Amino acid sequence: MTDRRTGTPGIADLGFAQVDVDREGRQGLPEVVYGPGKTAPQITAIVTSLLAANSGPVLVTRVEPETADTVLEAVAADGGRYDAEAQLLAWRPAPAGDFRVVVAAAGTSDWPVAAEAAAVASAAGLDVSRIDDIGVAGIHRTLAAAPRLHAADAVICVAGMEGALASVIGGLVAAPVIAVPTSTGYGASLEGVTALLAMLSACAAGLTVVNIDSGFGAAMAAHRIARTRKASS
Asked: The pTM is what?
């Protein structure tokens, strides 16, 4: 798609936004919209341009309920839906494929980030299941979940506090482990910085670590792994 005003291939120039409408062709998923800081009319315009230019899922993350209602009313034709737990708006979610992702959360306080990871991964077409509250303070809970973790093609590990769950799961399973530090914890947890540094310093080799509270980033990492595996098979 070439923008009529700029002539730049792959860009839809909305004035306030330069929408990357060719991303689906490069990465298998249209550009995902980050909701915070955008007005409902801006989100509506971006979503409309993405729906028109692509055939795959169109997603908006971190959307407040009131904004979601306004956008859904404005973009009603394509059957959008809102996941309040994950704060995710989605149109045309992909059916689940055969790439199995387990989203494992250390504690109930990590639930919102785990919910975002699971919702985005599911909308992108991954086969997603969740295991909640298996933090290492009760290591028997983690070990009891081992069979389900072993069966996954990728594990998204969501943990705050000291972030130890990522190291434990990274040592248990053969599949890629994508670690998400959360801002859960008391003062020395430094709003997720402690978990982030612990995951980056993990003894378990080969962990992928995304940004603090970025369930979205973890889901997209899993999507890229799944797409690469499919292309090579």
From this structure: 0.92
